[in-house]
Each structure stands twice: as structure tokens, then as C-alpha cells.
């Protein structure tokens, strides 16, 4: 591999632009090619940016360019297909969350990776947030004893009228708030608590005609802890997406969000509070949040060393299984005549 890491980006929407900006500011990394079906975007790149080749067909980009890694930031339905093409070309890839629209669409990619593995990663960036990393350490070290019960939410004030675009089209997005925003929360819960044993969900449409705007689930884990998930993009007073997880344990409890972690211990009968500014987690270049830079640096380092990442697509597939089970149980309730507006 060359000393400089050459990157290709498929899909130049918000996330593609953000990752391209971060990667171009990392030492020894350069975005060499991008692909997007919107000719307005590719023409702009060709005319305004030097050193970057633009394609309207990502397969052509993969065949013509000498790339060390490809970032996949397309609409969700295309994620597995582009990733399969990367594997067939022997190119490591990073794919934005979620992995796909359902487990069936993702299965061929996982089967291929079991035969022909390339370094890969899925973009569950919340694992790189300092407060959530501290929560994971508390759980792993059993600092508060046995885990008993949790409540978790993820909300944002995004949709209060009919949504427009691919994210509100079930065939392209795979679902509504649960298969977009809610995937971050589910990934954190699987990271914290391990494999799940049971899940029962319900969903509700209000502003959207094709996908859910609200989702709720009860989930139990093999580790013994169980609790609730609640997510919506139609809750007021959340300018930015916010995760909150409250975990009750045998010797205390903690509450963790993107911005803080608060820990109560029975022994001290007191709370300790840590805010994100208390952690030394700054980055040289911040575009969208330090967690995005940290995840991109991790991907690049793993590509350089030709090793697995801490967060590959198999873990992304585990998230898809939980989501699919929530949709399935919500649908079953509707068929049984339960008074709910199910997905």
C-alpha cells in the first residue's frame, strides 16, 4: 500500500461531504475520487476541485481508480450492493449506518465477507463519544454491581409535517425513525449489554404515510438486564438528536447522554457528574463532532495495518436483526387487532 491512503466516496450528500472533508484533513489521507448520480454535483467537483476525479457510476470509479478504501454514504437501500462491489474488487470499505433496509438485503454481503474478508466498518459514531465510552467502562468493570433495568430514548425535533425525500420512502430507507435515528441507540445498547433474547415493539405513523414517526420496544438481554427503547423524530424541544440511557444496578445507577454522565453509588449516597468538556477527547479537525473524526481515524489506521476495525458490518447486522424484530412484532399486534397504528 502507498504511504498515502487514497479514498473514494460513493454518495455526495451531507454525510459524504462531511467524511470527505474530514479525511482530506487527516495526515497521509487524500480523497482521490467521488461518485454520485447527480450530474450537478459531479460537474461542480470536476470544475471546482483539483485532484479529485468525479464519476456518475460508482462501478466505473472502482474499476478505474487505485483506491485503498471506499466510503459508502448513499441512500440505505444501496449500502449492501456497493459494499459487495468493494469486496469483489478487494477494497476495504466504510459504510454509513444503517447497514441496509432489512436483514435479507444484507445477507449476501455477510456471506461474501466470510469467504473473502476485507477491512470494513459501519458508521455508528456514538461509540466514539466520551460519555458513552465511560458508560461502557463502568458496565465492563461492574463498578455498580449487577445490571437490573434500563430506560432509553433518542429524540429529535425533525418532522412535524409530511416529509420529503428518500428517508421517508420505505423501499429506499427501510423504515422511518427506527431504521435511521434509532439505530444509534440500538447499537449502543447491544454494545453495552450484549446479545438480546427477547424484543416486543410497537410503532406509530402520524406525519408520515409510508414509515413510522414513533417507535417503542421492550427488550431483554442474555446478560439479564431488560428495559425500554423509545425513539421519535417528532418530539418537540430537541434541536439536535439526543440519546439518554438510564441504567439501574445493584449498587447504584447511572444516566448517560451525548453531553454528560451522572453516576449514583449507594456506598456514597451521592451523585458524581462528568460533562463532555471534562474529557480529553479533542481532535485536530472537527466537522460535525469529534466522534466523526475519531471514527475516520480508526478506519484509516485499520486500513493501514490491514486489521479488523472495532465496529465491523457484522455488528451492524446485529442492529438490523433487532430492528426487524421490532417491526415484526409491531405488525403482529396490528394483525391481532390491537389498538395501535403499526408499521
Automatic annotation (TrEMBL):
<dbReference type="GO" id="GO:0000166">
    <property type="term" value="F:nucleotide binding"/>
</dbReference>
<dbReference type="Pfam" id="PF22725">
    <property type="entry name" value="GFO_IDH_MocA_C3"/>
</dbReference>
<dbReference type="InterPro" id="IPR052515">
    <property type="entry name" value="Gfo/Idh/MocA_Oxidoreductase"/>
</dbReference>
<feature type="domain" description="GFO/IDH/MocA-like oxidoreductase">
    <location>
        <begin position="132"/>
        <end position="254"/>
    </location>
</feature>
<dbReference type="InterPro" id="IPR055170">
    <property type="entry name" value="GFO_IDH_MocA-like_dom"/>
</dbReference>
<dbReference type="InterPro" id="IPR036291">
    <property type="entry name" value="NAD(P)-bd_dom_sf"/>
</dbReference>
<protein>
    <submittedName>
        <fullName>Predicted dehydrogenase</fullName>
    </submittedName>
</protein>
<dbReference type="Pfam" id="PF01408">
    <property type="entry name" value="GFO_IDH_MocA"/>
</dbReference>
<dbReference type="InterPro" id="IPR000683">
    <property type="entry name" value="Gfo/Idh/MocA-like_OxRdtase_N"/>
</dbReference>
<feature type="domain" description="Gfo/Idh/MocA-like oxidoreductase N-terminal">
    <location>
        <begin position="5"/>
        <end position="124"/>
    </location>
</feature>
Amino acid at each position: 500500500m502507498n504511504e498515502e491512503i487514497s479514498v473514494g466516496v460513493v454518495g455526495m450528500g451531507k454525510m459524504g461531504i462531511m467524511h470527505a472533508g474530514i479525511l482530506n484533513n487527516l495526515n497521509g489521507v487524500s480523497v482521490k475520487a467521488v461518485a454520485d448520480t447527480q450530474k450537478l454535483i459531479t460537474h461542480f467537483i470536476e470544475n471546482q476541485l483539483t485532484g479529485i476525479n468525479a464519476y456518475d457510476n460508482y462501478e466505473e470509479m472502482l474499476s478505474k481508480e487505485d483506491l485503498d478504501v471506499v466510503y459508502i454514504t448513499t441512500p440505505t437501500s444501496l449500502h449492501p450492493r456497493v459494499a459487495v462491489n468493494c469486496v469483489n474488487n478487494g477494497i476495504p470499505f466504510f459504510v454509513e449506518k444503517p447497514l441496509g433496509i432489512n436483514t435479507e438485503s444484507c445477507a449476501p454481503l455477510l456471506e461474501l465477507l466470510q469467504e473473502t474478508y476485507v477491512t470494513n466498518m459501519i458508521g455508528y459514531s456514538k461509540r466514539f463519544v466520551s460519555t458513552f465510552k465511560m458508560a461502557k467502562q463502568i458496565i465492563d468493570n461492574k463498578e455498580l454491581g449487577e445490571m437490573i433495568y434500563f430506560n432509553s430514548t433518542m429524540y429529535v425535533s425533525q418532522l412535524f409535517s409530511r416529509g420529503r425525500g428518500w428517508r421517508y420512502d420505505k423501499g429506499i430507507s427501510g423504515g422511518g425513525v427506527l431504521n435511521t435515528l434509532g439505530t444509534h441507540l440500538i447499537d449502543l445498547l447491544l454494545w453495552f449489554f450484549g446479545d438480546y433474547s427477547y424484543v416486543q415493539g410497537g410503532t406509530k405513523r402520524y406525519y408520515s404515510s409510508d414509515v413510522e414517526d414513533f417507535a417503542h420496544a421492550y427488550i431483554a438481554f442474555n446478560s439479564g438486564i431488560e428495559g425500554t427503547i423509545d425513539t421519535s423524530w417528532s418530539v418537540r424541544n430537541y434541536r439536535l438528536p439526543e440519546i439518554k440511557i438510564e441504567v439501574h444496578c445493584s449498587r447504584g445507577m447511572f444516566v448517560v447522554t451525548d453531553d454528560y454522565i451522572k453516576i449514583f453509588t449507594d456506598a456514597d449516597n451521592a451523585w458524581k457528574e462528568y460533562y463532555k468538556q471534562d474529557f480529553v477527547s479533542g481532535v485536530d479537525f472537527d466537522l460535525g463532532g469529534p466522534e466523526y473524526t475519531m471514527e475516520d481515524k480508526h478506519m484509516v489506521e485499520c486500513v493501514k495495518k490491514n486489521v479488523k476495525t472495532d465496529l465491523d458490518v457484522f455488528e451492524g447486522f446485529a442492529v438490523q436483526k433487532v430492528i426487524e424484530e421490532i417491526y415484526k412484532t409491531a405488525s403482529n399486534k396490528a394483525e391481532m387487532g390491537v389498538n395501535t397504528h403499526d408499521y
